[in-house]
Design a protein that fits this description.
alpha+beta, four-stranded mixed β-sheet, three-stranded antiparallel β-sheet
Length: 319
């Protein structure tokens, strides 16, 4: 059960410590994960406590990331050539910078065929070199207020350091996402609604009806906030966290401010190491496929890879 500690008595004195566009999350205890979802990686842990912290109300946007790059000259992982040390078997012609781009699949295509390594895809050009955040023709609106994507863990950590914040732990993220609701499947209740978040409508990955108004990412804040005033804690883009990925939450039982296991392992990716937890699902999550737009849901993500549906938000610890 979520138990917010003396929130009303402390909000006035603590809220002033939260930077603009961040929300105060009061200290409290909750049950992390789920035993009812059918996903073994979500096995729950009781009495997980987090102390008060501030968290971004919105996912980090293209406009914010642009300010960071202009101030620091930072070059993201997706904009760098693949190194010979990390990829010794790749020929030189395949070392060009790029990232993973989603494309709607055709009937009969193999599992995960919808992901395509695309040379020239990065946060500035989400779908490849011919795409851009600002389209020059057709009256297409700029995407400055959309969440930044094609972000690897290293990129998010660099931005966090520059901003004087940090990536959230999984416990912080999930506690904040629940918005004072306990034992509910979604951040808004127990009934799925395509109008509550930017998710996939239709049959993934073959067609999307876009009944929520969006085929890809949506501007941050396009859907109603949760109980803590946080936007897009379900859908839009997956969000990176500090924690290493492992099945379940056994390491967090009866703990305060847990940071997860000391090393990562995902049995679905046995050859990959250093996998971080991502939370919240994305615009590619559908009821017929992954249904990961739930606070308990979690996936693993390699630190050196970005995609068209992974971004982040930050926290500022108060203690």
């Amino acid at each position: 059960m979520i138990n917010s500690t003396a929130f009303a008595a402390t909000i006035d004195s603590t809220q002033s410590n939260c930077p603009q566009e961040m929300a105060l999350i009061p200290e409290g205890s909750f049950k992390i994960g789920s035993d009812n979802s059918g996903f073994v990686e979500e096995r729950s842990a009781e009495n997980v406590t987090v102390t008060s912290f501030c968290i971004d109300k919105y996912e980090v946007t293209n406009a914010q990331f642009t300010q960071f790059v202009q101030a620091t000259g930072y070059v993201t992982v997706a904009e760098r050539p693949l190194s010979q040390e990390e990829f010794p078997d790749l020929p030189d012609e395949q070392r060009s910078p790029g990232s993973l781009v989603f494309q709607i699949a055709k009937p009969g295509e193999s599992f995960l065929s919808w992901w395509h390594w695309t040379t020239g895809a990065n946060w500035r050009h989400p779908f490849g070199p011919d795409s851009a955040l600002v389209q020059p023709a057709g009256g297409i609106a700029a995407k400055e207020n959309h969440p930044v994507v094609h972000i690897a863990y290293e990129d998010a950590a660099a931005y966090a350091k520059w901003a004087g914040k940090s990536l959230p732990t999984e416990a912080q993220w999930e506690y904040a996402a629940r918005g004072e609701l306990d034992n509910t499947t979604y951040i808004w209740g127990n009934q799925y609604s395509e109008k509550k978040a930017n998710t996939w409508q239709g049959i993934f990955p073959f067609f999307n009806t876009t009944s929520d108004g969006y085929l890809g990412t949506s501007p941050v804040g396009s859907f109603a906030p949760n109980g803590y005033g946080l936007y897009d804690m379900a859908g839009n883009v997956w969000e990176l966290t500090l924690d290493w990925f492992a099945l379940g939450h056994d390491s967090k039982i009866h703990s305060m401010n847990p940071t997860g296991p000391k090393q990562s392992f995902d049995p679905n990716k046995p050859t990959e190491i250093a996998l971080h937890v991502i939370k919240g699902g994305s615009y590619l999550c559908a009821p017929n496929y992954c249904s990961r737009y739930r606070p308990a849901a979690r996936e693993s993500q390699a630190p050196d890879t970005g995609t068209t549906h992974i971004g982040f938000r930050l926290v500022k610890n108060l203690k």
